[in-house]
What we know:
Blueprint: E1 4-8, H1 13-22, E2 27-32, H2 35-41, E3 46-49, H3 58-61, E4 67-70, H4 79-91, E5 95-101, H5 112-125, E6 130-136, H6 147-152, E7 156-159, H7 170-182, E8 190-193, H8 201-212, E9 218-221, H9 223-233, H10 236-250, H11 260-265, H12 272-278
Parallel strand pairs: 1-2, 1-4, 2-3, 4-5, 5-6, 6-8, 7-9
Helix pairs in contact: 1-7, 8-12, 9-10
Amino acid sequence: MSLRIAVAGAGGTVGRRLTAILAADHNVLALTRSPVRAARLGVRGRLVPADFGVRAGLNRALDGADALFVATFDPTDPRHDEHLASAARAAGVAHVVKLSALAVTDPDAQDLVTRWQRECEQLWQASGLTWTFLRARAFMSNCLSWSGAVRSGAPVATLYGDAPNACVDPADLAETAARALTGPGHAGRAYALTGPAAVSAREQVAHLARLLDRPVRHEELTERQALDRWCARHPRALAHALLESARRQAAGAKASVAPDVKLVTGRTPATFDAWARRHLDAFR
Ligand SMILES: NC(=O)c1ccc[n+]([C@@H]2O[C@H](COP(=O)([O-])OP(=O)(O)OC[C@H]3O[C@@H](n4cnc5c(N)ncnc54)[C@H](OP(=O)(O)O)[C@@H]3O)[C@@H](O)[C@H]2O)c1
């Protein structure tokens, strides 16, 4: 059966891939602040202007939607999920699939981003809507932030470069989201979504060097250096959340692998090597 599915965060890493999967069989409402930019990025479906910070426009954006995918992005603004939940209720949306973070299950994770994701999950649980949570480990695509350094021959500098992380391919997250939005049996479920193995930043850099067939150096940062770099790019509270998260990774909190990508999609999740082969042009 063809459904009408709204994708909130359609211009994002997972949302963009999700619209491509869904558009083959379903009527997709792709919510974005910038339809022009979204079209350039190849977002599929009907591009619907929407800003999660502006409640008034969301009713019309979700009009007639059977299901809703939610990826929100601003841990300093909890209103975004509130606005989407109230608009989804008003529009009669039957099922919400929310992208969350696996750290919410770790009682030691008390950083700003994880607390925000926990609060968002609680908000959806209390919303009266049927929900599914996709709790993701770090996206493999985060290392696209190294592409400039790799292209220019500079070292890739990270904090705790030997700390393992069972990072996940965003394409697997999009496939899992598509199954949860369109198939039965996902109501009230929270899935732990990881890749097939834990990999450290130093190992990721070595993978890239091997695939590029040239040396790529890894450089270890101190906590002070990493914090200064994050503070230059993000609000201070977010920079500190990243530091707390890196410390948990160094303590081994992100190394375990979960079976849920395969459980939901029937496919083994992609390795970092497979992800890197598909994105190698970004590093050339
Ligand atoms: N990255 C990770 O490793 C990771 C791991 C676990 C969980 N997560 C979670 O996954 C989600 C995606 O994170 P990300 O950092 O990877 O984001 P991202 O995919 O880079 O997406 C950013 C998108 O947010 C949209 N956006 C921002 N503010 C908006 C607003 N006010 N209204 C409407 N759209 C808005 C923008 O789309 P438009 O410009 O098209 O509007 C932009 O494309 C977050 O909830 C994050 O906590 C991420």
